[in-house]
Automatic annotation (TrEMBL):
Native source species: Evansella vedderi
InterPro entries according to UniProt: CBS_dom (IPR000644), CBS_dom_sf (IPR046342), Diverse_CBS-Domain (IPR051257)
Descriptive protein name: CBS domain-containing protein
CDD domains (alphabetical): CBS_pair_HRP1_like (cd04622)
Lineage, broadest ranks: Bacteria, Bacillati, Bacillota, Bacilli, Bacillales
Domain CBS: 8-66, 72-131
Entry superkingdom: Bacteria
Keywords for this protein: CBS domain
Pfam families: CBS
Length: 142
């Protein structure tokens, strides 16, 4: 059985709590990602998504200099590296999330995106199901 450790991305770019929304958006563009974890050291505090920037930033007329902590999502679902890929796909579908931070000993060590599940043949069905179930949710949307 494959675990998240087998498929997770370990080179994860992050922002610190003192970074601003503009800096997060530049990193999203540079790394072609839709979410950036917010970490203090290696401790995960939250995640800022492109949707957070639009809905909680631009739509509320906040300046680009607004700190990421003012618009980030704080209530995150996380997983451990030893969680099975099938279990993660099911959780992502049920909770309607596209990106799952991987945490070990309170430290961010990786991230699994829905696309990571889709590229692995053994999880293609689960990823397809997860994608069909996922729509942006008020509570979780990372």
């Amino acid at each position: 059985m494959k675990t998240l450790r087998d498929i997770m991305t370990t080179e994860v770019e992050s922002c610190s709590p003192v970074d601003n929304v503009y800096e997060a958006a530049v990193k999203m563009k540079e790394y072609d990602v839709g979410a950036i974890p917010i970490c203090e050291g290696q401790q995960l505090l939250g995640m800022i998504t492109d949707r957070d920037i639009v809905v909680r930033g631009v739509a509320e007329k906040k300046p680009n200099s607004t700190q990421v902590t003012d618009v980030m999502t704080e209530q995150l679902l996380t997983a451990t590296p030893d969680m099975s890929v099938d279990e993660a796909a099911k959780m992502m579908a049920e909770k309607q999330i596209r990106r799952l931070p991987i945490v070990e000993n309170s430290r961010l060590i990786g991230i699994v995106a829905l696309g990571d599940l889709a590229v692995h043949k053994s999880t293609a069905d689960e990823a397809g199901f997860a994608l069909s179930e996922i729509s942006e949710s008020e509570e979780y949307h990372h």
